[in-house]
Amino acid sequence: MHLGVSESMRECEYSQISTRSSTPMETPYKKKTSKKRKWEIFPGRNKFYCGGRIMMAKQTGVFYLTLVLILVTCGLFFTFDCPFLALQLTPVIPVIGGVLFLFVLGTLLRTSFSDPGVLPRATPDEAADLERQIDVANGSTGYRPPPRTKEVVINGQTVKLKYCFTCKIFRPPRASHCSLCDNCVDRFDHHCPWVGNCVGKRNYRFFYMFILSLSFLTIFIFAFVITHIILRSHRNGFLNALKDSPASVLEVVVCFFSVWSIVGLSGFHTYLISSNQTTNEDIKGSWSSKRGKDNYNPYSHGNIFTNCCAALCGPLPPSLIDRRGFVQSDTPQLAPPTNGITMYGATQSQQSHMVSDTETESVTKTSAFRAPNSFCRLPPHPSSSSRAASQ
Amino acid sequence: MAETHSLQDLQQPAVSSKVFIQRDYSSGTICKFQTKFPSDLESRLDKQQFEETIQTLNNLYAEAEKLGGKSYLEGCLACLTAYTIFLCMETHYEKVLKKIARYIKDQNEKIYAPRGLLLTDPVERGLRVVEITIFEDRSIGSGR
Fold first, then answer.
1. What stretch or stretches form a coiled coil here (chain A) (predicted)?
2. Closest chain A C-alpha to B35 CA, distance in angstroms
């Protein structure tokens, strides 16, 4: 009869499992905690604004400098040079300038505010599972093993995947850990202080559009301010022209010094896009032929056109970190290790036997999270309830 | 007392273990999961069913990331509208992710839940792993 009850109960309880949330069951002991959004407990060094919708790096000073430079230069251009040029030449000039300016601003804000492709850190269960696999591979030695790597063959090239100790994951190929933001970023290009964010898979195209349009805007402003001064000089003389329009001097200086770096950067990134490399890979020379005759880029699609299309017009993956989602209440944990060694050492039936013996209500939320290694290496903690239970 | 204990247990089946299906990077950075059947599931699930689930997931992710005329068109249109078009429209990738979520829910209801298993949508794990939670089998010697 008891079994009969459990059978019918089992049918009911399985239908309650909702895959929409990561917690399969609503625990009756769920605490009534205030609902926090995931961005509030985000482990990386990022700043969030607008309720988690905007995400930036911690240091944003240089970003504000970029913004000020662009706004001031364009502001001066529209105020002092455009009226003259619109009258003397054509009103199309301010219109094109305006369109370029808006595009530059839009792409800059999009690059700075969006998630670059941050990989969420491993859940405790995942981390424990990985540690177990690594221990099995290493032979469970007592000391800390050397940096863990996994080799994988991608399109004929051997690529080493490194283990990230902070995020507790094996980094996917082309991902890298940004030490400034303390996150692993997918297809990590570089951390750009000028935009105040990392440049990765999700915002690389916006970054490229930004520097490309900024190059055009800089050259545009430079050319037309020079034109303005020349036209004025024909009328009133060079010195008078400078006196009538002092802002133009400032604009010329700013543009002159920026154009070299910005145009150079655009050219460099155009090369990177066409060969489907990241700045990281290019600097390290990962796919350079100097490393070996058989060294080639396994990610390249073969021709420049496809590479460009893929980088700029390819599908945009959504954010993996779900900033605005609510933090789930405690998820059901794996049964705590009852004999000091991780439960994976025991067989399934043994575990369930042990679990039913110990007090399951007090499934310790902490001990299951600790990596198995820590039990082997550290001296027995008196606070570790699982150890006490086994004695 | 044994009854109270087991009633509580019945309301929340204890998690026996979790199996993680890792990513398969042999074809590059596209989202693809390994189809190798984990030994922990041998007692609960057919190898063929498992492979079919993973293969369907892989195909769906490939569809999301496919480079082709449609995705280029979407990309260009988005660029021309300064990406404001995504305020009213979902990206192709998001549409496929929703399809995947429906598929996983369907699989859970039909195949995995009756066997005491739970498939977790990889998107909740950062597209790193397919997490399969194995619940304790209550039909064997429960309620002592």
1. none
2. 16
- Tell me the catalytic residues of A: 192
Cβ of residue A123 closer than 8 Å to a chain B Cβ: yes
Kindly state whether residue B10 falls inside one of the protein's structural domains. no
> Is residue B23 one of the residues assigned to a domain?
yes
Q: Give CA separation, A78 vs A82, A89, A220, A256, B4, in Å.
A: 5, 15, 12, 18, 78
* Tally of structural domains, chain B: 1
The whole-angstrom separation of Cα A346 and Cα A350 is: 6
d(CA A148, CA A170): 9
Mean pLDDT in chain A?
77
CB contact under 8 A, A27 and B12: yes
pLDDT in tens, A166-219: 999 999 989 999 999 999 999 999 999 999 999 999 999 999 999 999 999 999
Task: Give contacts of B14 with chain A, Cβ < 8 Å.
Answer: 332, 335, 352, 355, 360, 363
A300's tokens: 């390249």
- Domain, as residue range, for B127: 15-33+44-135
CA distance A325 to A272: 35
Q: Provide the shortest C-alpha distance from residue A317 to chain B (in Å).
A: 6
Gap between the Cα atoms of A44 and A296, Å rounded: 34
CB hemisphere CA count around A246 (13 angstroms): 1
Residue A143, SS3? Answer: coil
| CB neighbour list of residue A30: distance below 8 Å, 6 or more residues apart | A329, A330
- pTM: predicted TM-score of the whole model, two decimal places: 0.77
Q: What is the rounded end-to-end Cα distance, in angstroms, of chain A?
A: 35
Question: H helices within chain A, ranges in order?
Answer: 2-15, 61-76, 82-88, 92-113, 124-138, 204-236, 238-244, 246-274, 279-284, 304-313, 348-357, 372-377, 385-390
**A contact residues 227-266, partner B, Cβ 8 Å cutoff:** none
